[in-house]
Structures are given as structure tokens and as C-alpha cells.
Design a protein that fits this description.
The complex is a heterodimer of chains A (103) and B (556).
Chain A (H helix, E strand, L loop, with lengths): L5 H6 L2 E9 L4 H10 L5 E9 L4 E9 L4 H10 L3 E8 L3 H4 L8
Antiparallel strand pairs in A: 1-3, 1-4, 2-3
Chain B lengths: L2 E4 H12 L3 E4 L6 H8 L5 E4 L3 H15 L3 E5 L3 H15 L4 E7 L15 H5 L5 E4 L3 H16 L5 E7 H5 L1 E4 L16 H13 L3 E5 L1 H5 L3 H11 L3 E3 L14 E4 L6 H9 L2 E5 L5 H4 L10 E6 L13 E4 L2 H11 L6 H13 L13 H10 L6 E4 L3 H9 L8 E2 L10 H11 L5 E6 H4 L5 H8 L3 E7 L4 H10 L15 H8 L2 E4 L6 H10 L4 E6 L23
Parallel strand pairs in B: 2-3, 2-4, 4-5, 5-7, 6-7, 9-10, 9-12, 10-11, 12-13, 13-14, 15-16, 15-17, 17-18, 18-20, 19-20
Antiparallel strand pairs in B: 1-8
Helix pairs in contact in B: 1-2, 1-6, 3-4, 3-17, 8-13, 10-13, 11-14, 15-16, 17-19
Classes of the chains: A alpha+beta (103), B alpha/beta (556).
Chain lengths: 103, 556
């Protein structure tokens, strides 16, 4: 992934995953570990508690490739994952943050 | 009525309530409170292993032979890291295991304290789930939940890391939680079963492909019933050996890298592959694009993530295989499939599996068959990993699910001896035979003294070729015969080693009548090491070269 230039990167199809999880110190590691062990780069991560804080919502932005359906199934298997939804790249959650990520 | 108990006492009580009667482990500083409580338990027998990996594999032997979750214990730091290989092994073969590790006190976590390691972080990718317990109260939820997760759905290992101060924290207990049990699976969709039945009924050349999931869900009898009703020639993965008796007329034996030629050739011709509790492992499929090239695929597995992972199924059914097969059985029509059954018998006759030296107990196949002749189907067989493992898989007449305990997915040398000890502890009425090699046995040789201490009925058949046989074989076949680091220049005296550890030993090399010596050693109760030298030039054949298609077998 590192060798891909910004322009090439922009041309690739992206996907956004919305993952509801139990909120505890190990959960992020469980989720992102599934991606890192497959050398599947996570382009963006957002996470905040939801409601009373017993649950969190993780938003991941990814470059779509043929492994994505398998990744979603693997994430679904995690004990601490309550639900996972797939959105298209035009989802507002990351777009609204662009001003914080100017070089 | 309430009682005040420490986290350690609560842990032990919860294990007792789970019905755990044997645990294997090694104590150390960070788990001493639990050991102190365990010492007071009259219900649980603790087996003191000599290396934590040995304890992990003993627990695996208990779990694999009974199907119930088993427990191993280790202290923090090196105790926990030594357990990791056995846990990873359980993950890849879907074995229900609950590993309990001590951790440094909460306040010291993250300070590089003595014997501190990030057990939680290390175990994430090799467990089904894991916990770092932060209070004694939490144990009441976590321990039953660990057993529930380990046993439910696709089984697997769960690790519970308990800091020392949580073990010593005392709380009042009023009510005990229910023990954690396997949760019922969601019912199978009848529409999918009907579709599967229609595909099987319409197929001309179907093959049933059984995996370890058939063993785990207790579906062996149903699978054989289905095969018989519809006359489905049946292949088994390494993990499924024993689900259909190997001498059943419909059995094509093990498929894949070291299958008989007729097995892989039948798969080439099949028009429907019914995969049940199998995961299309590369050792089974060979080059995936060339696996069953003419076949439609029905894939039944309890883990939805296995469907379409390696090979896209025409019909994928996420279900407990016992439940799915039970529904499928009445929907499949009787069919004698005479043409296809005849074709399979022709393939068996034209491309038979050759076992030279069967009548010579000093040859590898002859030794395996002579051992089998000394035993009946009640015996349990464990193996280590290497040439001996494949030869036993090919030649031993396995006829019972859970008769065969082997490290399949991870392929861990060192598995055989401690797993055999665990199996013998779980089912003391059975004779347990461990086939091993001179490379593998040295990887957990220390557990021989545990076998002596527990006086388990384990017969270790050491097939000694003074090489790392499969490495030797691959270097010979695929690396221009450049043998490097695969031949031992120095071999220990295994007879003296066994005797030094306190177990009986027999050297078949020196026996005037090896058959009689073998029979006597197997019949004598208690642990025994049986040493037999074998020819280092023998190969495991046939062999599909790594990465090649299954049709391209070499040798024999």
C-alpha cells in the first residue's frame, strides 16, 4: 500500500465499515488485528463511545479489494462485535473530518 | 447464605461447577493464589506438566478425546508464552480449550514487572476470544462465558488472564452462575436443505467430503448413513479420519497431498462435491483452481466465514453439520449409483495404494499395521508431526470418531506425547498409542516423566530414522538432493532416556521377534516407549508437490 501514490489511492474504490462493539480496552486491538495480520491497510479509524458508554462505534475506511467480504465475516465473528454495516465511500463520517487532515 | 471467597477460590469453584475433574499446568508466582485454592479442591486432579506447552497439549488430549472443553494453567510471562503454541494449535483445529494464566498485579501491568508479558495482546490472534479480568466479581461472568465460547458453534480456545491481586481479592458470593455450556445453533433453513437434496439426487458423480467439523458436531454416524443411502463415495480430511471406517466400501480414505491416487483421481471426475465441516485447506485441495474442476459444490459449515473463503460454493449452508445432515438424510433419495460406484472401484483397482513391507514389522507400514493388530477400535491413536504422521494416517485402520488425535492445521511437532497423556487421563479404560518420530519426540520429551508420574496407559511408538523426515524428503525431491540440517549427526539413546524418566522401554531393533515384543509391550499396563529404527530413505508417497494440482502426484 505504501508504494501507491496519493492520486492512485484516490482512484481506488473505498468502503466504510460501521462496527458496533462492546467498549473495553482490548476491542480495538481485536478488530484491527484482523486487518493487520492480512496486511490489509486500514486508511481511517474513528471510534467514540455510544449512549451510556458500554458500547462504542468504530468507523473504518478501507480500500476495497477482493478480501473485503471475508474481512467483514471475520469481524462479525468477534465476540465483542454486536453489528457491522458496510457503507459506500461517500459516507459523511470521514468527509466531515477532512479539515483536520490537511498536510 | 453468602460466603466470602477470594478470586482464586471462586475460579476453582467455577471450574468444579463446570464439571472439570482434570487440569494440567505448572505453577509460578503470579498464579500461586489459584494453585493454593486448587490444592484445597478434592474434585479436581492437577497434572503437573514439565513444560507449559506440554500442559496445553495434555488439555488438548482431554478435549479432543471427549469433545468437552479442557483446562490448562500457567503463570505469567514465560509460563504464558510457553502455552501459546498449544493454544494456536487448538485454534487451527477448532479444539475447545480454556487456558487460565496468572498475571502480575493490576497496578504493575505495563511497568515491565518481573515475569510480565502482554498475554492478552499475544493471545488475540490465536484464540477464539480472550479476557483480562479486572475484578473478582468479573470472574463470575467471565469463567462460565469462557466455557460457553469455547464449546459453542465452531469450538476453539479461550484464554483468561487473571492478575494476582484479582486472585487474592475477597468478595461475598450469594449466588453462583450457571456453568457455561455450548449454545444451541440457529436452525438450518429448510429451503437450503431441500436445494441440497435436489442437487445430490440429480448428481451423477457426487463425492462426500468430510472434515473435522463432522467429529466436533458428533455427526459421524449421520454422515455414514447419508453416504450409504445415496451411495456417495466419501473422502476424509486428516482431521476427519475415523468418521467413516476406512474399510467401509464407500470410503476413499484421506484426500489431498498424501492421498491414494484413486482418491484424488475420483475427485477429478466428480460432478458434485458435498463438503461437510471441512474448510478446503491447501493440504487437502492442492492448487485450488484445479480442485474438483468439474464439480458443483455444496458447502455445509457451522462457521459462515468458511463459506466462499477458498472456493465459492454453488450452495453454502451455515449450519451445525449434525443438524443439517439429520434434515438432509430423509430428503435424499435411495440411489444405488451403480455406474459411479463401479467407476470408483475401478479406480481403486487401477491406482491402488501401495504399502510395501506390510508383513515386515521393521518397515514403517509393517510396524504401523502390527501395532494396529495388537489393538482394537477402542484404542486411541495420537501422532506427532512428520512422515510417521502421514504413514499412520495412510495405514492405520481408523474406524471411530475421536479415535484419531493429530495436529492438523498448525502441524506442531511435540504434540503427540502430551496429547496422548491427556487422552489417557480422560479415558483411562482405553489404550492410547502415540506414534512419534525422533525429531518430534524431543520437542516435548520432558513429559515422559509426567507419563511415569501419572502412570498413564500410553504406548509411544518411536519411528526413528535419525532425520527430520519430511524436510529430508522435500530436500531430496525439490531441492536438488541438497540435504542440509535434516540429518541428525548425533542421536540420543532413547531407551536410556525413557528409563531415565522412569518408564519402561523396548527396543524392537534388538528383539529377536519384534511382533512378540510389540504385543508384550502394548499389553503391559502403564507407559512404555517402543523404539524402532526405520529407513531414512523412505518417502511419504504419493505426494502432491506443494502448490501443484492434486492430479499431479509423484511417487508410488
Amino acid at each position: 500500500m505504501n508504494a501507491i501514490t496519493k492520486n492512485e489511492n484516490d482512484a481506488l474504490a473505498r468502503a466504510v465499515l460501521e462496527i458496533n462493539v462492546n467498549n473495553h480496552p482490548g476491542v480495538m486491538s481485536h478488530v484491527v488485528g484482523l486487518f493487520s495480520r492480512r496486511a490489509y491497510n486500514v486508511e481511517g479509524i474513528l471510534c467514540l463511545p455510544v449512549g451510556d458508554g458500554s458500547q462504542s462505534r468504530i468507523w473504518l475506511m478501507l480500500i476495497e479489494d477482493h478480501r473485503l467480504p471475508q474481512m467483514i465475516k471475520q469481524v462479525e465473528k468477534l465476540e465483542d462485535v454486536i453489528a457491522i454495516r458496510r457503507h459506500n465511500a461517500d459516507h459523511a463520517v470521514f468527509q466531515d473530518l477532512e479539515s483536520f487532515f490537511r498536510p | 447464605m453468602t460466603e466470602t471467597l477470594t478470586g482464586a477460590q471462586i475460579t476453582v469453584r467455577l471450574l468444579e461447577r463446570q464439571g472439570i475433574r482434570t487440569v494440567a499446568g505448572i505453577p509460578g508466582g503470579a498464579i500461586l493464589p489459584i494453585y493454593d485454592a486448587l490444592g484445597q479442591s478434592s474434585a479436581i486432579h492437577h497434572v503437573l506438566a514439565r513444560h507449559e506447552q506440554g500442559a496445553g497439549f495434555m488439555a488438548q488430549g482431554l478435549a479432543r478425546s471427549t469433545g468437552q472443553p479442557a483446562v490448562c494453567l500457567a503463570s505469567s510471562g514465560p509460563g504464558a508464552t510457553n502455552l501459546l503454541t498449544a493454544i494456536a494449535d487448538a485454534k487451527l483445529d477448532s479444539i475447545p480449550l480454556v487456558a487460565i494464566t496468572g498475571q502480575v498485579p493490576k497496578a504493575m501491568i505495563g511497568t515491565d514487572a518481573f515475569q510480565e508479558v502482554d498475554t492478552y495482546g499475544l493471545s488475540i490472534p490465536i484464540t477464539k476470544h480472550n479476557f483480562l479480568v479486572s475484578s473478582a466479581e468479573e470472574l463470575l461472568a467471565v469463567i462460565p462465558r469462557a466455557f460457553e465460547i469455547a464449546a459453542s458453534g465452531r469450538p476453539g480456545p479461550v484464554l483468561v488472564d487473571i492478575p494476582k491481586d484479582v486472585q487474592t481479592q475477597a468478595i461475598e458470593i450469594g449466588e453462583w452462575p450457571e456453568p457455561g455450556r455450548a449454545q444451541p445453533t440457529t436452525p438450518t433453513d429448510p429451503a437450503l436443505i431441500a436445494q441440497a437434496a435436489a442437487m445430490i439426487n440429480a448428481a451423477e458423480r457426487p463425492i462426500l467430503y468430510l472434515g473435522g467439523g463432522v467429529v466436533h458436531s458428533g455427526a459421524a454416524t449421520t454422515a455414514v448413513d447419508l453416504a450409504e443411502k445415496s451411495n456417495l463415495p466419501t473422502v476424509m480430511t486428516l482431521m476427519a479420519l475415523g468418521t467413516m471406517p476406512v474399510d467401509h466400501p464407500l470410503s476413499l480414505g484421506m484426500l489431498g497431498m498424501h492421498a491414494a491416487r484413486y482418491t484424488n483421481l475420483a475427485l477429478e471426475e466428480c460432478d458434485l462435491l458435498i463438503a461437510v465441516g471441512a474448510r478446503f485447506d491447501d493440504r487437502a485441495t492442492g492448487k485450488v483452481a484445479a480442485f474438483c474442476p468439474q464439480a458443483k459444490i455444496i458447502h455445509i459449515d457451522i462457521d459462515p466465514a468458511e463459506l466462499d473463503k477458498i472456493k465459492t460454493a454453488h450452495l453454502g449452508i451455515a449450519a451445525d453439520v449434525q443438524e443439517a445432515l439429520t434434515q438432509l438424510l430423509p430428503a435424499v433419495s435411495d440411489n444405488d449409483r451403480q455406474v459411479w460406484v463401479d467407476r470408483n472401484n475401478t479406480l481403486k483397482a487401477e491406482f491402488p495404494f501401495e504399502m510395501p513391507g506390510l508383513d515386515n514389522p521393521r518397515s514403517h507400514f509393517g510396524l504401523i499395521r502390527t501395532v494396529a493388530a495388537c489393538l482394537d477400535n477402542e484404542a486411541t491413536v495420537t501422532t506427532d508431526v512428520g512422515q510417521h504422521q502421514m504413514w499412520v494416517a495412510q495405514a492405520y485402520p481408523l474406524r471411530r470418531p475421536r479415535q484419531w488425535l493429530t495436529s492438523g492445521g498448525l502441524g506442531t511437532m511435540g504434540f503427540g506425547v502430551p496429547a496422548a497423556i491427556g487422552a489417557a487421563l480422560a479415558e483411562p479404560h482405553r489404550t492410547v498409542v502415540c506414534f512419534t518420530g525422533d525429531g518430534s519426540i524431543l520437542m516435548n520429551i520432558q513429559e515422559l516423566v509426567t507419563a511415569a508420574e501419572e502412570n498413564v496407559n500410553v504406548k509411544i511408538v518411536l519411528m526413528d530414522n535419525a532425520t527430520l523426515g519430511l524436510v529430508h524428503q522435500q530436500q531430496t525431491l525439490f531441492y536438488g538432493e541438497r540435504l542440509f540440517a535434516s540429518q541428525f549427526k548425533s542421536s540420543p539413546d532413547f531407551i536410556k532416556i525413557a528409563q531415565g524418566f522412569g518408564i519402561a522401554a523396548v527396543d524392537l531393533d534388538l528383539a529377536a521377534n519384534p511382533c512378540a515384543a510389540l504385543m508384550e509391550a502394548i499389553a503391559r499396563p502403564g507407559p512404555c516407549l517402543i523404539h524402532a529404527s526405520i529407513d531414512a530413505e523412505q518417502k511419504v508417497y504419493p505426494m502432491v508437490p506443494p502448490g501443484a494440482a492434486n492430479r499431479d502426484m509423484i511417487g508410488a
